[in-house]
Amino acid sequence: MKLLQKAHSAIAAEGRAQAVMLPLVIFLFFAWGFTTSLNDPLIAKLKGLFSLTYAEAMLTQSAFFLGYCIFSIPSGLVLAKFGYIRTIALGLAVMAFGCLLFAPAAMTGLYPSFLGALFIVAAGMALLQVAANPYIAALGTAKNASSRLTFAQSFNSLGTFFGPLVGALFLLQGGVAAPTGANEVALKAARITEATLVMGPFLTISAVLLVVAWAFWLLRRAPSPPTDAVDLNPFSLRVLRRRRLMFGVAAIFLYVGAEVAIGSGLTNYLMQPSVIGDRSVGIGQQVSALFEQLFHHHWSFNGAQIAGAMVSLYWGLAMVGRFIGSAVLSLVKPGKVLMFNALVAMALAIASSQTTGLTAAVAVLLIGLANSIMFPTIFTLALEGMGADTSKGSSLLCTAIVGGSVIPYVYGWAADLQGLALALLIPAACYLVIAGYGLFTLRKPVRQP
Known about the structure:
- The protein has 20 helices and no strands.
- The protein is an all-alpha fold.
- It folds into 2 domains: 11-226, Up-down Bundle (Growth Hormone, Chain: A), CATH 1.20.1250.20; 231-449, Up-down Bundle (Growth Hormone, Chain: A).
- Residues 3-15 have low confidence and may be disordered.
């Protein structure tokens, strides 16, 4: 009888823990989506603040995704040792510390200091990603695990939508023009003044993350499922010989790189006179009027804020596309859907690079819709038939996210040479290879046992 009562008490305690943990973990998905997409307006701000070339400005994403890649596998070791809740608390604390580092970066007015802060933020985010995805799947019945993860991912998309919008309103309120000064001392003072606009939002984010980290730490003894053993060596020769997987690794590398490159350069791209221009004419004037109506004319928006806010459409369309894509993928072979979307994305990138005005703006923003299903589709196609090596294949695919560190830099280098419009041919080439992967999976289907 006592054993039965203890069992009922344990089940009740687990149920209460799940009721508390679920909304907290869902918030994590929103937080890292929001923080990641905040890089887009940040890049435009830092480019003007430090008079950077496009390639130099893209080092922002290089630092971020390099940190993400380097710490992903060690994060698995931390998870195996300390469990889900403590790992999440640590990840939030590390992210908060990285955001706090924006204060000394702003006060010194040094670009490398901002890169270092972003590197630390990415390290914390790697801890969150490694822990939160399997943890939310375990918070409830196995039958509804996929539903819970999909629901949480929708909040990640919501975060990527709001990140550029909030970033545009606050990070870009001083515009993106380079600071001026009569001498080096005056120039540095002007730069520090502008840099403080960057500092405020990140300090606010840091405070929120610390509160949530404290909540997880207080709940660290709550009932939690055991963590699986972590294989820290996904680079076995047997795994590397699988062509379907390795082509998938290349496709993930190129996809993340293309998606991030477009988003990172989008504010500057839309600001060009040949696309939207400033707030005084055309679509820029219309969007500015809409924003001022929404905020009851309390704020006046500059051209950088308008362009930065429109980046939200790029990520918002990706969110819409995931809902559409989930229905389509239940009816059409994933390889066909991937090939179609990649070819559409390539065509849109080329179309935007060869046109101007509203046509160029709409074409580049619609790439977000085409991007929507690519990452999960490539991921699942690459892991088909992996069997016992699935976890190793998954680790390899996760390391390929480092494409977000490399491709944007190449994109920036091309923009410095030929302009932002022709630089769109770099992600267009990436999408062509991704379409080739979709075709490859159709022609080389996995043999079913």
